[in-house]
Amino acid sequence: KATVSVLYWLLAMPSATEVFSQSCLQRGMKKPSSAAKKIFEGENNLEDLEEVELDDVYIGNRGIMALLDVIEKAPNFRKIGLSAQKIYNTDLSPDSIKGNEIVDRVVDVAQTHPTITSLDLSGNPLSNFAGRKLLHLANSNERIVGITLDDTRIDIDLIDHIASKCDKNLKIFWEKQNQGNVDDERDFADGDEDDAFGNATFAPPKEKAPDLGGIGGGKRKKTVMGSRNDPDAAKEFKPPYYPKEPEDEQKLTELLKGIVLFSHLGRESLKSCVGAMMQRRYRKDDEALKQGDQGDKLYIITKGTCNVLKKGVCVAKKEEGSVFGELELMYDTPCVATVQVDSNECVTWTLDRATYSNIVIASQVKKRKEYEEYLSRVQFLATLSPNEKLQLSDALSSDEWDEGDSIIRYGDDGEWMFLVVQGTVEVVGRSETGEPYKVCEFVEGDHFGELEFLNNHKCVADVKAVTFVRTAKINRRHFELCLGPVLHVLKRNASDPKYEYYKKQLEMAES
After folding, report:
1. Can you give the pLDDT at residue 338?
2. How distant, in Å, are the alpha carbons of 109, 316, 420, 448 from that of 498?
3. What is the pLDDT of residue 219?
4. Which of 166-170, 282-286, 304-308, 364-368 has the least mean pLDDT?
5. Contact 305, 272 (CB under 8 A)
6. Are 197 and 204 in contact (CB under 8 A)?
7. d(CA 160, CA 76)
8. Is the pLDDT reported for residue 165 higher than 80?
9. Contact, 364 vs 336, CB < 8 A?
10. CB 293 within 8 A of CB 281
11. Mind spelling out the 3-state secondary structure of 66-106?
12. Which letter does DSSP use for residue 458 in this model?
């Protein structure tokens, strides 16, 4: 009877292709491409599916989500391979703190699946936010012994942390294996060494031992934007400058500020990007980008319109103020579509990848050095190790405020902790009758917002810039991923006289 039941279960289990096709349909795809269907040609049985390598097959965002649905249902799956799929993730604006849907889904599947041990996300323009989520995955799941991140935008130091944790997880597995503490449900009579790992609680990948070079060794690139960019060289890089009319400079500056790839840059770096932009003019039917060609520029349209074509079909329209070429700017990848001029004349401003990369890297190097020096002067972070300070400095994002700007508003959700890098801010609380009054001022080296931040509490005061102010901030989720162990240190700071007002407000909220 048991044999009949197992046979019935196997016959009733849908194939990998069937699950993939159904998931694609549910996600709005009429049908998956023939190339996407071929990824299961080698093994279409969910029970036997252990690994999928997409190689040069690009399946798109919805295809990736469908593939993850398949992986979730494959009971013996081991390695998620999503290299060169143009998975984009950013933490450069407050709106993106929830992360990219695909990255969240990848981490969720890897976290909950009983047998997945490694991920390959190389060749994707992933940011440090994705890197921190992957570090959290490796820290919280000892099964994860390999995460490959070649050619991504994740900082080398963060990749090193991830690789180190994966290495530790691998050692833990072997220790458990040697001590006989790894459960096994497979029959080892045939002597197959791969089978000896079976459905172990901490199962290694299909290979006898993962290639550590692929998760942090010599094969990994040492740069944020690709192997051509070196942090030391970036510091010496002199961006080109093309003169512009003042109105053009102002317009380009405002447009770049609205693009997430530039929103993290300070005024000087943004000014360098604007200065390095070169004007290009096109006539009707000219092709600024051609699908399949190599692209390396970002384009901003300041006059005219363009059509976005895929296989000759218009799928979108770009008008004045629109941007295209973002992926080509970030990553050495063929153009995903053709952009053809639709108006009689089209004026664009372009920025090449090498200039953008060097400006961004130089900005990151400068910011890291500045923040590390600054964090060393902050009292409540004095006990952090150099590595913890490095993690925090990478997670901080910067903002600039003019005199009179509101940084925090009374009643807002307390999601952010701020560090004052430059200038003076004032805290305006509320009396028992609801009247506003000045509580105190914070200057360089002070911090604010952390009590609401820690207690998941709405802001109990306004914080405004008294002078020009530069702040560094971190969201609660980022903070917990980076510096969870020091939360109690922050809470001890609540005894400082400056926080008497906050303590009263918190006590009133709890009563």
Report:
1. 93
2. 45, 54, 15, 10
3. 32
4. 364-368
5. no
6. yes
7. 29
8. yes
9. no
10. no
11. HHHHHHHHCCCCCEEECCCCCCCCCCCCHHHCCCCHHHHHH
12. B
Sign of CA dihedral 361, 363, 367, 370: positive
Q: Report strand pairing: 462-465 vs 424-430.
A: antiparallel
Token output for 311: 């296989």
**What's the token pair of residue 257?**
């500020």
Helix axes 386-395, 156-178, angle to 10 degrees: 130
- Looking at the DSSP assignment, which residues form a beta bridge with residue 306? 318, 341
What phi and psi, each to the nearest 5 degrees, are found at residue 323? -125, 145
Q: Which of 280, 274, 281, 272 is CA-nearest to residue 250?
A: 274
Structure tokens at 360: 């961004």
Q: What pLDDT does 334 receive?
A: 81
Look at the chain and count its residues: 511
Q: Which of 186-195, 260-269, 279-288, 303-312 has the lowest mean pLDDT?
A: 186-195
Is pLDDT above 90 for 276?
yes
283: buried, middle or exposed (CB in 10 Å: 19+, 13-18, 0-12)? exposed
Q: How far apart are CA 478 and CA 252, in angstroms?
A: 31
Q: Which residues contact 411 (CB under 8 A, 6 or more apart)?
A: 458, 459
pLDDT band at 264 (very low <50, low <70, confident <90, very high): low
For 55, the token pair is 């190689």
| Tokens found for residue 264 | 């993290």
pTM of the model: 0.46
CA distance 219 to 206: 20
CA–CA gap between residue 404 and residue 402 (Å, rounded) = 6
Nearest CA-CA partner of 429 in 455, 453, 452, 463: 463
The Cα 348–Cα 277 span in angstroms is 10
Q: How far is CA 324 from CA 256, 279, 330, in A?
A: 12, 15, 12
With cut-offs at 50, 70 and 90, classify the pLDDT of residue 201. very low
Q: How far apart are CA 475 and CA 471, in angstroms?
A: 13
**CA atoms of 471 and 407, how far apart (whole Å):** 9
Radius of gyration of the chain (CA): 26
Residue 206 predicted with pLDDT over 80:
no
Residues 488, 416: contact at Cβ < 8 Å? no
Dihedral sign (CA 331, 337, 341, 343): negative
Pair 36, 52: CB distance under 8 Å = no
pLDDT number for residue 484: 54
Strands 79-81 and 118-120: parallel
Could you tell me which of 114, 122, 360, 332 has the C-alpha nearest to residue 237?
360
